[in-house]
Predict the structure.
Amino acid sequence: MELPSAVPHDTRHAEVGIHFGGAPGCIAEAREAAVAFLRHHSRPARRTFHDDVLLVVSELVSNAVRHAPGPFVLELGLVPGGIEVTVRDTSSRPPHSRPPDRTGGRGWSIVQSLARRVRVVPCHNGKTVHAELLW
């Protein structure tokens, strides 16, 4: 998968934004985009960093597919000390923890445990979830 060219944004050094229709198959595509971004923007990192980024991408994108109708945008950006994973979707309902069961319930806790900082920002047509991970 080829990524769009990086553009500067806020404190990010490089950023890519990818639009998805919201079909379940796009979760794998989002992970592929994250792998390509990590390969292109590699930095010295702890051994599990790439796995952590891919897990956060998977969880945020899965939540968008499962709980928000329609399209969403995945953004990956370099920030001082790490990477920010951002997902903009069409649901105004913020993510929340729930007791795990056989259908899920672990994702939001996983994102919060792996990220240095997590923010949920409401917007006029949904929300944006930001998760910053340290190298």
Summary: The domain at 15-134 is CATH 3.30.565.10 (Heat Shock Protein 90). Residues 1-9 have pLDDT under 50 and may be disordered. The radius of gyration is 14 Å. The helical segments are 26-40, 49-67, 107-114.
